[in-house]
Amino acid sequence: MAESILLCEVRDGIATVTLNRPRAMNALSRALRSELARTFRDLENAPDVGAVILTGAGDRAFCAGLDLKELGGESDSSAGRAVGAGDDPIVAMEACSRPIIGAVNGFAITGGFELALACDVLIAAPEARFADTHARVGIMPGWGLSQKLSRLVGVMRAKEISLTGNFIAAEQALDWGLVNRVVPAGELLETCRALARDMLSCEPDVMRAYKRVIDEGFAVAYGEGRRIESAANRERARTLTPEQIAARRAGIQKRGRAQSGGSR
Fold first, then answer.
1. Contact 129/167 with Cβ under 8 angstroms?
2. Distances from the Cα of 79 to the Cαs of 30, 47, 72, in angstroms?
3. What is the mean pLDDT of residues 22-44?
4. CA gap 60, 104 in Å, rounded
């Protein structure tokens, strides 16, 4: 029996989704794109899942992008056809209210780079490498890279990456603000799990609403983003009681003492 091209393990409220085509550097075939989109739609409706980790199988690649060998064998009419919304993994990831942590274990190239940028947090191994080769392949991005990258690293750095197709090493990605941190490969998944556990310790409905406010504000001008935040603030304030605030404040103080090593 052939092994699945996508693995999904749920443990302690955390779903670990693994692109499982290591011999193809986890390239996104049509089947894998469809399966990835379906999996994220299912996770959105899974009551036992509060956070998601996305990674690639093997030690070479997170994701090498679209499967160019597959595309090269298709007819002209189908090779350039956009994936439908139902099979689009980026649409499914962007619609996911759970935080998505990308564990970038190797190459993240073009479509794989876009997959990484669809995550909410990126943790990279030292072996991680990022490249946007759209201009070299002769296609235009369609999953947001041209807009997201410039907002993350600045327009000039984004142009350097995208207009050269050059690879960016993990430490340079960290220096440019593309990834949150770089950790040894052997610690990559456990670091992501620890981060996911921290997220799960927050109020789940507020955490998901907060993610939505950040994402919606990121996509608009500052003034409109403030209006989105204010509306969310008012909506949430109507549901809180003084007793709930007092209980949560006590919990925050206890956690703060534990994290700072203090006893007061």
1. yes
2. 11, 37, 7
3. 96
4. 10
Q: How confident is the model at residue 82 (pLDDT cuts 50, 70, 90)?
A: very low
Question: What is the pLDDT, as a whole number, of residue 75?
Answer: 32
Q: Residue holding tokens 């103080």?
A: 253
Q: Residue 68's pLDDT band (boundaries 50, 70, 90)?
A: confident
Residue of higher predicted confidence among 238 and 106: 106
- Bridging pattern class, strands 100-104 and 121-124: parallel
Question: Which strand ranges, in their side-by-side order, compose the sheet holding 51-56?
Answer: 6-11, 14-19, 51-56, 100-104, 121-124, 181-182
Compute the distance between CA of residue 51 and CA of residue 197 in angstroms, rounded to an integer: 8
d(CA 102, CA 173): 14
pLDDT at 246 over 80: no
The terminus-to-terminus CA distance of the chain in angstroms comes to: 58
Confidence class for position 109, pLDDT limits 50, 70, 90: very high
48-64 average pLDDT score = 97
Gap between the Cα atoms of 14 and 22, Å rounded: 23
Token readout for 68 is 């160019």
Placement of tokens 């207009």 in the chain: 163
Q: What is the pLDDT of residue 240?
A: 79
Integer Cα distance of 115 and 66 in angstroms: 10
Query: Cβ distance 53 to 103 under 8 Å?
Result: yes
**CA–CA distance, 199 with 12 (Å, rounded to integer):** 12
Burial class, 98, CB count within 10 angstroms (exposed 0-12 / middle 13-18 / buried 19+): buried
Closest CA relative to residue 157, chosen from 140, 171, 178, 136: 178
- The helix or strand, by DSSP H or E, that contains position 163, with its residue range, turns out to be helix 155-164
